[in-house]
């Protein structure tokens, strides 16, 4: 099996009203999408993780015509179910998956900078992955980050992490961050990863929270 990880970016107002509604809101944003299911009536059901003040997010999305339903946390951070209208670009991206017989590795990480975008990993045969990469919608820019043979023996713990979080964790482990005593600092990891110290600290906090939660849930 072949995999390809790419960053897809688009101009403002191009992707979906859901994304546009939160684009300039600092109090809350859409962090990851765990699954998107096309429905028979042409709409979509999403399972997505929000970060920040969910009361603010709910107020904004309740005024967004394309958001038909929202169920999830009422205060801070968490997974939410959304039912939304389609958009041309979202439809084109989903058609790419169906036409070229590739599988999308979930979750998909949303990039909340400028330009807007997402990091996705496609999995399939050599031919299907190559075709999908070559036939991206014309309204997006695509930057290929990595491509290679997909190892189907990925740890369930690592599957819970985003591509960026896996990169940060791998760097932290290889540089001895989790050794006793520690052999590196967050500032040194930040230099290695070309990130700010605050961003590295935030990534590590989220990684440790996800891994601890995954292990704890496996005991229930």
Automatic annotation (TrEMBL):
<dbReference type="InterPro" id="IPR036388">
    <property type="entry name" value="WH-like_DNA-bd_sf"/>
</dbReference>
<dbReference type="GO" id="GO:0006355">
    <property type="term" value="P:regulation of DNA-templated transcription"/>
</dbReference>
<feature type="domain" description="HTH bat-type">
    <location>
        <begin position="161"/>
        <end position="212"/>
    </location>
</feature>
<dbReference type="Pfam" id="PF24278">
    <property type="entry name" value="HVO_0513_N"/>
</dbReference>
<keyword id="KW-0804">Transcription</keyword>
<dbReference type="Pfam" id="PF04967">
    <property type="entry name" value="HTH_10"/>
</dbReference>
<protein>
    <submittedName>
        <fullName>Predicted DNA binding protein, contains HTH domain</fullName>
    </submittedName>
</protein>
<dbReference type="InterPro" id="IPR056493">
    <property type="entry name" value="HVO_0513_N"/>
</dbReference>
<dbReference type="GO" id="GO:0003677">
    <property type="term" value="F:DNA binding"/>
</dbReference>
<feature type="domain" description="HVO-0513-like N-terminal">
    <location>
        <begin position="16"/>
        <end position="149"/>
    </location>
</feature>
<dbReference type="InterPro" id="IPR007050">
    <property type="entry name" value="HTH_bacterioopsin"/>
</dbReference>
<dbReference type="InterPro" id="IPR016032">
    <property type="entry name" value="Sig_transdc_resp-reg_C-effctor"/>
</dbReference>
<keyword id="KW-0805">Transcription regulation</keyword>
